[in-house]
Amino acid sequence: MKTFLLFVRTSILATLTLILLVQSSAADQSLTDFAGTWKGICQDGNPFVVLTIRVSGGTLSGDISIANMQGGNGQCATVTDPPTAEHAMKIDSAKVQGNIFSFQGSAKARFEMSLVDAQTARLKFLGTPVEDTPWKLVKSGDSSR
């Protein structure tokens, strides 16, 4: 009887460990779906937003750089000063829920990125006209791995 109970206990522990590993792997996979370099392309053909996302320590990190641009309702018609690494904002308060990645670039710059598919996303700049008409982003590289 003791041998049987030991076997049952060992089986339960092994099953729980496997479940936790599968859940962890699924969580890591959803993070890697966001990882990479994402760009928004202006009507004039130039990038106006560059979002670089990396997976580090089970969370997302990176930065976002937005160009000075002209256009109505927060949409880009022409880039007047391109996005640069020197003016990039570090990603802070990163949170993933399903296919939505929310983060802050600064105290007043809050964003929500939603995945459309593996290569396309929509970026809302919260509290601005871009919240209602999100920017389209295209994945141009992978800096996660």
Summarize the structure in words.
This protein is α+β, with helices and mostly antiparallel strands and 145 residues long. It has one domain (33-141): Beta Barrel (Lipocalin). The protein has one helix and eleven strands; from the N terminus they run H-E-E-E-E-E-E-E-E-E-E-E. The chain has one helix at 2-34, and strands at 36-41, 47-56, 59-66, 68-70, 78-81, 89-90, 92-97, 100-106, 109-117, 120-126, 135-141. A nine-stranded antiparallel beta sheet has the order 6-3-2-1-11-10-9-8-7, with helices on one face. A two-stranded antiparallel ribbon has the order 4-5. A hairpin with a 2-residue loop joins strand 7 and strand 8.
List the helices and strands and how they pair.
Elements: H1 2-34, E1 36-41, E2 47-56, E3 59-66, E4 68-70, E5 78-81, E6 89-90, E7 92-97, E8 100-106, E9 109-117, E10 120-126, E11 135-141
Antiparallel strand pairs: 1-2, 1-11, 2-3, 3-6, 4-5, 7-8, 8-9, 9-10, 10-11
